Amino acid sequence: MRLGSSLVVLSLLVIMLVGLRFLSPFGMASTLTAEVDIKPETLNVERQGRWIAVFIRLPEGFNVTDIVPSSILLENLFQAEWSDIQGDVLMVKFDASSVTDYLQVQLFHMGVPRTTTKLLVTGQLTTGAVFVGSDEIDVIFPRGSQN
Questions:
Q1: pTM above 0.85, yes or no
Q2: CB atoms near residue 76 (< 10 Å)
Q3: What is the domain partition of the chain in residue ranges?
Q4: 108 partner at 20 to 30 Å CA-CA among 1, 48, 79, 143?
Q5: Which residues touch 82 (CB under 8 Å, ≥6 apart)?
Q6: What pLDDT, on the 0 to 100 scale, is given for residue 137?
């Protein structure tokens, strides 16, 4: 139980530090709203795959080739590990086990076998502009693990 509490505190600290970076005058240059589609749409924490894929499309007038892949974060915590441009969409992948562990810490206390949650994706363009987008996914917890 102590490990779970430590993970929550660490997660909150990281979120605060990353949030301060985005609230600084440099990070306020301009913020774009990106269209984000997260796959899988349903994440079963017992049968997780290797990747969580995120498809990012920028507003008209902006090009995904200008996105700095190393700047892309899921929930302001997880850095994209892989990226590929497919037409006007940038696909990035995140380690599923890390994200699943995070979701279990964040959502397990709700005591429900299935819930919907919104995940935030952020990143930066080569111009310094910041983009944000989010998508909802369903999370299914292991059988017998709920109260």
A1: no
A2: 17
A3: 2-140
A4: 79
A5: 51, 92, 93
A6: 95
Helix axes 96-107, 2-23, angle to 10 degrees: 100
Helical residues (DSSP H) of 24-131, grouped into ranges:
96-107
Q: Encode 15-41: b = buried (16+ Cβ within 10 Å), e = exposed.
A: eeeeeeebeeeeeeeeeeebebebbee
Residue 46 CB coordination number (10 Å)? 10
HSE toward the beta carbon, residue 5, CA cutoff 13 A: 2
Residue type, 75: E
Q: Which two tokens stand for residue 31?
A: 């913020």
DSSP state of 15: H
Would you state the pLDDT for residue 2?
60
Tell me, what's the pLDDT at 112?
76
Mention the CATH class of domain 2-140: mainly beta
Say what the pLDDT of residue 20 is.
46
